[in-house]
């Protein structure tokens, strides 16, 4: 079974930085895309950043210029470097991966989330 596990969350002050990691493991044929989503209390889950197999990436407008998504294909791992953090970045951050377990089977896998709290 495929697993997606996040790490790197924590408590930081406004203006600080964190780097989140997400590692996929299991019966993986290929990974078409990996991304980060977040959900704050009382709000809907939203896309933060996403990177596809070609290396192209996109970001939510609210994080452009502050966050950078990257990947290590050999480790099936995606990272989110978060700089200049703001209190409004406080949320649970979830990793999402579009994974093929066979060439014919593709689906989304979600991690359980990691808490990011930015104090003011």
What does this protein structure show overall?
It is a single chain. This protein has 120 residues and is an all-beta fold. The protein is 0% helix and 61% strand. The protein is built from no helices and eleven strands. It has strands at residues 3-7, 10-13, 18-25, 30-39, 46-52, 57-59, 67-72, 77-82, 91-102, 105-110, 114-119. β7 (67-72) and β8 form a beta hairpin. The termini are far apart. The mean pLDDT is 97.
Low-confidence blocks of residues: none
Sum up the overall morphology in one term: elongated
Oligomer: single chain
Radius of gyration: 14 Å
Percent in strands: over 45%
Largest sheet: 7 strands, mixed
Count helical runs: 0
Q: Percentage of helical residues?
A: under 10%
Q: Give me the secondary-structure category.
A: mainly beta
Mean pLDDT: 97
**Spatial gap, N to C terminus:** 40 Å
What string gives the helices and strands in order? EEEEEEEEEEE
Strand tally: 11
Labels describing this entry:
single chain, 120 residues, mainly beta, seven-stranded mixed beta sheet, 61% strand
Please summarize what this structure is.
With 120 residues, the chain is mostly beta strands. The chain has no helices and 11 strands. A hairpin with a 4-residue loop joins strand 5 and strand 6.
